[in-house]
């Protein structure tokens, strides 16, 4: 006897209230731009593509409907009223420090009259936008940073207010594709006997492209979402232009084809970067973006209309007896399920890594590298001077990061998880290895899980897999939390997803 046949295909969907708006937040030419230790320039000399701030607001179908949360350390048991909103503020920047992030969120909350806890800031993580830290104000072009950050906060607040006033009933349909842009970047240099951060063709990489198409009640396309994990490090130390890296061309490709704004969300890409990267040629970044854009479009094009299922309708006698399928509206029970709304916000306490250097130790090392750079320059040893300059920059960043770490024995990692119908949306602080998304998606194969990492401030640094601690890989060497932290985070998130209704 043949196995029972599957007679319907249900594409994952959500129903919610939604709005999206975006604005140009390109910094002025001449602003401090040095993101890379190896860079020889300080100021941006031009603009490759504009940078964006994009705000997306999500809310349950019914106003004031209570959320469902599982209590944990530092976590509230329920979310009601205006705190039910989830505001996603996506910026075309690499990271922000704790002080800059707090100032941004505080301003946006006050100016838009929204609770601070509803605002989740995420970053495309482009390394071509410049390092916007207030501690850089005294450096060439750094005097432009404070005013620029204020302008970003003001524009973001306007976008949030605009979205709140325009919340619309919407249907979200999810699809999954693949793109080979991302490659593993933990590479062992046999000659130098050390790990370097670069293309490793011998290791697997997660190429999952998760897309979401958002339409209103009339079927009009409101926005698309592309969720992909790959460091925007096409452009590196030789690039002097302000750039969203590959993200700019990705959006251009999708928006030209769809006529609607495209929101890019950076996935868990701790060990993933473009196959071809670390260059100064902006054309390579555009090529990388088009590759991802076409992969996303392929997946978006295959999606059915919101509120529909694909169902077998029976045999049709022709030259052969054919099996006919058709799209039809979801039954009432299925449509109601798409409206489910649950929201979790918490701080996952991750133990600090033992043996962290002290600020005094780092300060001493910084001064030594600065002295060594001066000595090398006096001796005409340009390569040695460049290396010392890069190492001094590394120590300067470490010193700044240590000064902003929360006190105590554990880092309180910010996590936001919200469930809409079939889909889960996750925002996580820090740069997690891709195990975060691959393991969650493996455990819950029937639920699309949008993963936005590099959320909030960068204080959490990297969250590598436990097995690479002690190897000297860059991401592991600067991690501030102990081995096993990523695995703990995965279990915490998985427990909430499993417990969702």
Number of domains: 2
Q: Using the CA coordinates, give the radius of gyration.
A: 24 Å
Average pLDDT, rounded to a whole number, is 92
Strand content: 25-35%
How many helices? The count is 10
Number of β-strand runs: 23
Task: Report how far apart the termini are.
Answer: 36 Å
Largest sheet: 8 strands, mixed
Low-confidence stretches: 64-80
In helices, the fraction of residues equals 25-40%
Shape: globular
Q: Give me the side-by-side strand order of the main sheet.
A: 6-5-4-2-7-11-12-14
The secondary structure category is alpha+beta
Characterization of this structure:
Helix content is about 30%, strand content about 30%. It is of the alpha+beta class and about 500 residues long. A hairpin with a 4-residue loop joins strand 9 (about 185-190) and strand 10. The two termini are about 35 Å apart. Residues about 65-80 have low confidence and may be disordered.
């Amino acid at each position: 006897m043949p196995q029972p046949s599957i007679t319907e295909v249900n594409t994952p969907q959500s129903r919610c209230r939604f709005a999206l708006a975006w604005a140009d937040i390109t910094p002025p030419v001449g602003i401090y731009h040095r993101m890379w230790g190896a860079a020889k320039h300080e100021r941006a000399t031009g603009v490759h593509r504009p940078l964006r701030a994009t705000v997306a607001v999500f809310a349950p179908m019914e106003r004031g409907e209570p959320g469902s949360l599982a209590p944990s350390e530092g976590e509230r048991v329920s979310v009601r009223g205006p705190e039910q909103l989830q505001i996603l503020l996506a910026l075309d920047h690499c990271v922000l420090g704790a002080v800059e992030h707090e100032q941004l969120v505080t301003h946006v909350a006050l100016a838009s009259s929204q609770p601070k806890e509803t605002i989740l800031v995420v970053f495309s993580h482009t390394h071509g936008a410049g390092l916007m830290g207030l501690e850089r104000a005294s450096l060439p072009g750094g005097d432009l940073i404070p005013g620029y950050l204020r302008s970003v906060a003001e524009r973001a607040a306007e976008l949030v207010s605009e979205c709140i006033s325009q919340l619309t009933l919407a249907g979200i349909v999810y699809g999954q594709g693949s793109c080979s842009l991302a490659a593993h970047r933990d590479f062992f240099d046999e000659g130098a006997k050390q790990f370097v951060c670069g293309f490793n063709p011998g290791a697997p990489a997660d190429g999952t492209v998760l897309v979401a198409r958002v339409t209103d009640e009339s079927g009009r396309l409101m926005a698309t979402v592309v969720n992909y994990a790959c460091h925007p490090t096409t452009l590196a130390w030789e690039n002097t232009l302000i750039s969203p890296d590959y993200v700019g061309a990705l959006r251009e490709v999708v928006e030209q084809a769809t006529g609607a704004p495209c929101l890019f969300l950076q996935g868990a890409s701790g060990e993933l970067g473009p196959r071809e990267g670390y260059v100064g040629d902006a054309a390579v970044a555009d090529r990388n973006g088009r590759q991802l854009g076409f992969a996303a479009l392929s997946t978006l094009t295959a999606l059915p209309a919101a509120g529909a299922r694909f169902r077998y309708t029976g045999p049709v006698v022709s030259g052969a007896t054919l099996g006919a399928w058709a799209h039809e509206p979801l039954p009432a029970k299925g449509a109601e399920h798409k409206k489910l709304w649950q929201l979790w916000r918490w701080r996952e306490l991750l133990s600090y890594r033992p043996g962290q250097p002290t600020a005094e130790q780092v300060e001493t090392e910084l001064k030594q590298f600065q002295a060594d750079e001066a000595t090398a320059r006096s001796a005409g040893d340009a390569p040695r001077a460049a290396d010392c300059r890069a190492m001094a920059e590394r120590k300067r960043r470490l010193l700044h990061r240590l000064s902003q770490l929360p006190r105590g024995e554990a880092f309180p990692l910010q996590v936001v998880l919200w469930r809409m119908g079939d889909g889960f949306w996750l925002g996580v602080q820090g740069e997690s290895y891709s195990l975060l998304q691959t393991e969650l998606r493996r455990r819950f194969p029937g639920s699309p899980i949008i993963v936005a990492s590099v959320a909030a401030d960068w204080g959490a640094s990297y969250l590598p897999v436990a097995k690479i601690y002690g190897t000297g890989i860059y991401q592991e060497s600067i991690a501030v939390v102990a081995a096993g932290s990523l695995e703990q985070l995965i279990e915490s998130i998985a427990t909430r997803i499993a417990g969702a209704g």
